[in-house]
Fold this sequence. Notes:
The chain is mostly helical. The protein is 75% helix and 1% strand. It is elongated and about 85 Å long.
Amino acid sequence: METITNYLDSMFASLPNTLEVRKARRELLQMMEDKYNELLEEGVSENAAIGTVISEFGNLDELADDLGLTEEIKNLTEEEANVRYIKQEEVDSYIADRTKFSFVRSLGIFLCITSVSMPVLFDNIMDDIPGIALMFLAIALGVGCIVYSGFFMSSWQFLKNEPCKTDMGTASYIKNKEQRFEPKKALYITLGIILCILCWLPCLLFEHSYENLGPALMFPIVGVGVFLIVYGNGISAGFKKLLELGSSSKIYNDHPNIPKRYKNKTAESVLLLYWPTVTCLYLILSFLTFSWHITWVIWVIAGVLHKAVEIQCLESEE
């Protein structure tokens, strides 16, 4: 049966990853399985059954009308002339550049956040000028990293400017890579949130000694936390970008290769900025009230609200 499935994948490899194509693939797979099991029950050998199934169902041109793929196959040649199909080698190169982009951009954000600790650290130790100078130096380096990170993705602008698609085989390859990255992403985000929540600990530990050291250490801890969150989400966004190529389906649960689709760009932006906004709100309230033992509840509330907001922003199934 695995031989039949692999053959089926090769049959559909050149077709776009659309709802109609996926539906037709499922129908054809079911017909092939039924025929295969029927032949086995009749006493036909496994190899002979596979050969019969492939010879009977192995031509998409002949089955196009029954599967509802007449238009897809008719327009395939025309589409291939105008659409660029992303290959697996390009997927690997894109993810590598996306990883570099996410790292350098996250480093820039880390430097900008950490820069605030410089004047605090040098306060009462020496003149304020070195601390302020180091702060602006860190900001300059941070902004430089953010600007420089864009160069890693400059060679991939064609993904936005040209019609690009992935075939079903490449889409499955991307999804497998994304699934392997998911545990790392979960670890990055979890550690990042924990660091943001516990960033006040240095203030508590050095409350009665080295009083400037506590606030000075707090910002680097927040910076590392934000670094991990942005880095993990940045790589994950690369996978989602590739999976969206050529996907016209709104039913993201219909096939594992289709990412979540939101109602509009505003809804997508709301979800994208949700956790950074929660983090900022948590830090602002905590600094204003110094009730760190209470303000952590924000994360519990935010988790519940995030699910409710996401459900409202997702496109409904048709």
